[in-house]
Task: structure prediction
Amino acid sequence: MRYLKSISLFCLCFLIGLASCLFVACGKDENEIKINEVTHSIFYAPLYAAINLGYFEEEGLKVTLESNDGSHTSMSVLLSGNCEVALVGPETVVYANETKDKPLVFGQLTQKDGSYIVSKTPIDNFTLDMLKNKTIIGGRDGGLPAMTLQYVIENAGLKIGTGEDEVNLRKDVQFANIATEFRTTDNEFCTLFEPTATTLQNQGAGYIVSSVGEFSGLVPYTCFVAKESYLKSHPVQAEKFLRAVMKGYTYLTTKDASFGAAALKNSFPAMSQGELEIAVSQYSDLKAWSPTPKMEKSSFDTLVKIINQCSGKTYNPVFENCVDNSVAEKI
Result:
C-alpha cells in the first residue's frame, strides 16, 4: 500500500511539474506585448510618449520594444512569432498577403513620409528641380522610403536616371547605412529620419533643406501590424494597445513642444532637450502623425499606387485582406 501511495504521489508531482513547465513555456501573460519597430525614430513619437508616460500601464499592458533596421526584417520577426506587434511600412503587408497566418494592419501611426531631404550644402527655398544632375540616396529598393521618394520625384515631372537633367536616385543602400554612405561619398543629397537628420546637421555633415512629406501628401507610411490569429484571440489587448498610443498622440499634439520633448527623453537619451523640441515641432508642423488609427481605403489605394509605380511589380491586394479596422473603429 505504501508503495502504491508513493507511486501515486510521484505521478501527481510529475503531472503538476509538467503542467507548470507547459504554463511557463506556453502560458505567457496575454497582457504582455513585444513590439518590433522598423527603426528607432522620433517619427514614432506617440508610441514612445505612451511608453514613457505610463499609458500602456494604465491600460493594463506590459510592452517591450525592440528596434530593427528595415520593415522587411521586422516583418520576418513578426511572422516567426518572436513579437506580437510590428511597427512597419504597410508595403510589407502587401508583400506578405499570401502568408497562411497573414499579417494585418490594425492601426495607423503616421500619415506622411517622415524623412527629410539632407544636402551637403545649405540651400534656401529648396525645390525638387534642384535634384537634376545630382545624386540622392533614397534607401533600399522595395522599401517605402525609396519608393515614396521616387514617386515624389516622378510626379514632379522629373526623370530618374544618370543622363542630362535627370535625377540619380540610389536605391541600393540599406536604411541603417544611409547616413554613413552620405558622409563617405560625394553624393549631394540623401533622405534621413529624425533624430539622425538633426544629429548630422549639428555635426556639420549635412543640412536639412526640406521634407519628403511636404511633397508626398497623405500616405499610410507606418502602421501597427499583427498576425490575423493574434487579432482574433487578443482583440481586447489590441484595443488597449491602440488606446494607449492615441493617448500619446493627444499629449504630443495638445502640449507645447517642450513637454513633448521631455516625454521622449528616456527614448532618446543622447539628444538634448533643444534637439528633441526641434524634432517634435518639425513632425508636428508636418502633421506627420495620424489623428486616427483607422486606415482609410483611399489612403491604402495611394500606397498601392506608389508600390506599383515604383517597385517594378504589380500588386492587386484586396483592402480587407490587408487591413483590419475593427479595433481602430472602437477607439
Summary: Confidence is low (pLDDT under 50) at residues 1-26. The chain has two domains: 31-112+219-330, 116-216.
